[in-house]
Write a structure and sequence with these properties.
Layout (H helix, E strand, L loop, with lengths): L2 E5 L2 E3 L5 E8 L8 E6 L5 E7 L6 E3 L7 E6 L4 E6 L8 E7 L2 E2 L3 E5 L2
Parallel strand pairs: 2-11
Antiparallel strand pairs: 1-3, 3-8, 4-5, 4-9, 5-6, 7-8, 9-10, 9-11
């Protein structure tokens, strides 16, 4: 079955950077568009970015443009989300998504 496993979260100071990873299995990885979402405490899950199966196309939520970069390495069945200049409001659980399938998420906490 489809499995998605996120990693790379942690505690980061404001202004820092992180690169999150999501490894997929159980499906033909390079044929699926994949997405990143996040969910802050007490809030709804928000779309961040999407990347096409071949990695040539990416789009972002308007509010996420500039500090977030999505990428993928199909040789490793992995997508990435790089977040720069982290802000307190970036504190959330970050999830990757493939269709109706979700990973368990990785916690990002931004705190001084």
């Amino acid at each position: 079955q489809v499995q998605l496993v996120e990693s790379g979260g942690g505690l980061v100071q404001p202004g820092g950077s992180l690169r999150l990873a999501c490894v997929g299995s159980g499906f033909i990885f390079n044929q699926w568009d994949l997405r990143w979402y996040r969910q802050a405490p007490g809030k709804e899950r928000d779309f961040i970015a999407r990347i096409s199966g071949n990695g040539r196309y990416a789009d972002y939520a308007d509010s996420m443009k500039g500090r977030f970069t999505i990428s993928r390495d199909n040789t490793k069945n992995t997508i990435y989300l790089e977040i720069n200049n982290l802000e307190l409001d970036d504190t959330a659980v970050y999830f990757c998504n493939a269709g109706a399938n979700w990973g368990q998420g990785t916690q990002v906490t931004v705190s001084s």
